[in-house]
Design a protein that fits this description.
The chain has one domain. About 0% of the residues lie in helices and about 30% in strands. The protein contains no helices and 4 strands. It has strands spanning about 15, 35-40, 45-50, 55. Strands 1-4-3-2 form a 4-stranded mixed β-sheet, with no helix packed on it. A hairpin with a 5-residue loop joins strand 3 (about 45-50) and strand 4 (about 55). The chain binds zinc ion. Zinc ion binds near residues 32, 50 and 51. Zinc ion binds next to loops.
Length: about 55
Amino acid sequence: MTENQNKFDLTKIYDFKELPDKESGRCDNCGQAHFKSTVGNGKFIRECSHCGMKKSI
Ligand SMILES: [Zn+2]
């Protein structure tokens, strides 16, 4: 497969400071703007509800 899926490792939590949104409020991986959020250890994790890509904000 030569499509550019798997551009991002969905098992990893990206750091928003190192990887800001290409388009603010949208997932870098799939472009959707639908997220669920969790808070743990003082960190805010934003997970895309479409592809599951995670970023700590
Ligand atoms: Zn996504």
